């Protein structure tokens, strides 16, 4: 009996979530650039519903939740892993990202989900990164720590490439770890 190799199976499907709602967010740009350094056997899909999520209210999570929440949970359920990139606002993660995570707390889809977490802001995002690590681990996700990085549009080159070699190295290593953790994951039924 032979074992399947990565080339024998479908590409790893990763849902990318930017923690920023800004139209020209550096974190969203960083996710798009990360797609360029992702391995060939990985498909990254951008989540674009953060702004449409209602404010989390446990009373609204009884029975059938609101449609944007169902869509988020479905996209998470279809993914083999997540890539979250978050800025830091006032020494913490943005409220919109925390709101999305709150909607996932009672869902089965994210349990055991591998997550590559990268936090990036001009100040380094250490506080937001620490908060996100705590929240994601509390939610029983398998976190691959891609680190907190100093990042701004100044680190995007003229050909839309990341000009910070340490960030490219962190993303490359993170993608490899994400694939490894995902391959070892036993999905929740």
What does this molecule look like?
This protein is of the alpha/beta class. 36% of the residues lie in helices and 19% in strands. A five-stranded parallel β-sheet has the order 2-1-3-4-5, sandwiched between helices.
Q: Please give the alpha-carbon distance between the first and last residues.
A: 27 Å
Structural class, from secondary structure content?
alpha/beta
What level of helicity do the residues show?
A: 25-40%
Strand content: 15-25%
Shape: globular
Number of strands: 5
Mean of all residue-level pLDDT scores: 89
Number of helical elements:
5
The profile of the biggest β sheet is: 5 strands, parallel
In short:
The protein is α/β, with parallel strands linked by helices and 189 residues long.
Describe how the helices and strands are arranged.
Blueprint: E1 12-18, H1 26-37, E2 42-46, H2 67-78, E3 81-86, H3 95-105, E4 114-121, H4 126-138, E5 142-150, H5 165-184
List the defining traits of the structure above.
189 residues, alpha/beta, five-stranded parallel beta sheet, 19% strand, globular, disordered N terminus
């Amino acid at each position: 009996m032979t074992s399947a190799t990565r080339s024998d199976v479908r590409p790893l499907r990763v849902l990318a979530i930017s923690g920023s709602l800004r139209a020209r967010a550096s974190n969203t740009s960083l996710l798009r650039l990360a797609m360029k350094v992702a391995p060939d056997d990985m498909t990254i899909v951008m989540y674009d519903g953060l702004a449409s999520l209602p404010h989390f209210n446990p009373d609204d999570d009884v029975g059938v939740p609101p449609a944007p929440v169902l869509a988020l949970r479905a996209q998470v359920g279809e993914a083999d892993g997540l890539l979250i990139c978050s800025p830091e606002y006032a020494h913490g993660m943005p409220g919109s990202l925390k709101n999305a995570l709150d909607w996932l707390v009672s869902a089965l889809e994210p349990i055991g989900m591998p997550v590559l977490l990268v936090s990036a802001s001009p100040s380094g995002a250490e506080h937001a990164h620490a908060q996100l690590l705590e929240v994601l681990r509390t939610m029983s996700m398998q976190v691959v720590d891609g680190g907190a990085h100093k990042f701004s549009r100044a680190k995007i080159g003229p050909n839309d490439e990341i000009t910070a070699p340490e960030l490219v190295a962190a993303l490359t290593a993170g993608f490899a770890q994400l694939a490894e953790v995902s391959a070892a994951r036993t999905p929740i039924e």
